[in-house]
Amino acid sequence: MTTVSKSYESHEDPVIDYCTKLTIKMSPLQEELQKETLEKHERRGMLGGPEIFVIGQSFLNLIHGKNVLDIGTFTGASALAWALAIPEDGKVISMDVDHSALDQIGRSIIEKCSKTAHKIDFRLGSAIETLDKLIAEGKSGKFDLAFIDADKVNYTNYYEKSMELLRSGGVILVDNALWDGAVVKTEKDEATKAIDECNRRIFADERSNSFLINVGDGLHVAFKK
Ligand SMILES: C[S@@+](CC[C@H](N)C(=O)[O-])C[C@H]1O[C@@H](n2cnc3c(N)ncnc32)[C@H](O)[C@@H]1O
């Protein structure tokens, strides 16, 4: 079985190489952040794939997106990608339980560009709590895109809360939706079961139009009706 590994990892499929080479476009700031993360962080495999960022940026352009939920910050690469794609008055709320990777690597790189940095609001704490707080503050229906990329056991919860917070026509991107192919295996650990459950929940959900694509580590795309 072939699944597509992240484009910054080595793999042996020349067709995938061809596709990613002719898809990935990164700003110098993104290149620096990717390089520093891959060179310096011991959990570098958590870094989002740049082809996923291009897809998300394209959706943001398509739907004229301004307000983004970035669920799982790590070194800030996905937050930076969305900030680069939204207008001056847009906002990315990026959430994580741990800011050590951001403080070690991403924050100083992102802050070099004042035109982009002010668009990102990094929130420390459980993403469930951050999303619930946004709902309690009356922000339901105010967001254009949600990128789900934090702890896998909460994927369905993140999907549900994102559906609540998105406006009609908004898009949810669920990263790692194939989990290196583990979703099709008979034996599944807790994370794999949770991703599989979320994929099936999205497929059955009449509130959205969706498709699951074999790009990167799998990307489930759902447009809120
Ligand atoms: C795969 S990384 C995010 C990668 C990032 N989106 C990117 O594109 O480079 C997942 C992140 O989720 C965070 N995380 C794990 N559990 C969490 C939780 N319950 N709430 C918020 N963040 C969580 C981890 O600390 C980690 O930084």
Automatic annotation (TrEMBL):
Tell me a Gene Ontology molecular-function term this record carries: S-adenosylmethionine-dependent methyltransferase activity
- The keyword NAD appears for this protein: no
What keywords does the record list, in alphabetical order?
Methyltransferase, S-adenosyl-L-methionine, Transferase
Any one Pfam family here would be Methyltransf_3
PROSITE patterns under this entry? SAM_OMT_I
Q: Which SUPFAM superfamilies match?
A: S-adenosyl-L-methionine-dependent methyltransferases
Kindly list the biological process annotations in GO that this record carries: methylation
Protein's recorded name: O-methyltransferase
Q: Which family does it belong to?
A: Belongs to the class I-like SAM-binding methyltransferase superfamily. Cation-dependent O-methyltransferase family.
Q: What is the lineage of its organism?
A: Eukaryota, Metazoa, Ecdysozoa, Nematoda, Chromadorea
